[in-house]
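Chapter summary example.
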Amino acid sequence: MAPLEEPTKRRQVGILGGNFNPVHNAHLIIADQVYHQLGLDKLYLMPAYEPPHIDEKKTISADFRLEMLALALTDAEHLEIETVEIERTGKSFTYDTMKELTEKNPNTDYYFIIGGDMVDYLPKWHRLEELMALVQLVGVRRPNYPVESAYPIIWVDVPLMDLSSSYIRKKVAEGCSINYLLPKSVINYIHEKGLYVDEN
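The structure predicted for these 200 residues follows.
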């Protein structure tokens, strides 16, 4: 009698989406904390090609953002870059992206990370019910935002940092220091390429 084949172990993978314009230390802390707290096999930072927000957000070329992500993750073996939205181009709806990823990787369970400030907006998300059938939502607690939701969300505590990419861009444009807000390699790249100096 042939031995029974062991079922293939499902991979547990996190996804942190964003513009990463530029990637900064709060992004990296969130990614690292979710990876460790949930015991994931891998966590991917996934830059959007064009975010689907109503208020159009100006962003720099995907090539620059990918280069900065690669520099930031040089020593982080558990963190990698997912380029599916960059490769697809156009507006990036989470449902379309996760449908594509789950079809490509049927043995993977995905954990999609959102900020606590985004939870109230979930009812407005494109094809939300179908998305939740594809992924487990992970909420990152934020100050002054409730941790209650009608949706099944795993909540994760991370160190609170009032840091944003727009703040960094503003500081670069003003000629201010951005030391310790993002990896030194990314700071050097921003200065070398002259990024954000004309940010309004």
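To summarize the output: The first helix runs from residue 25 to 38.
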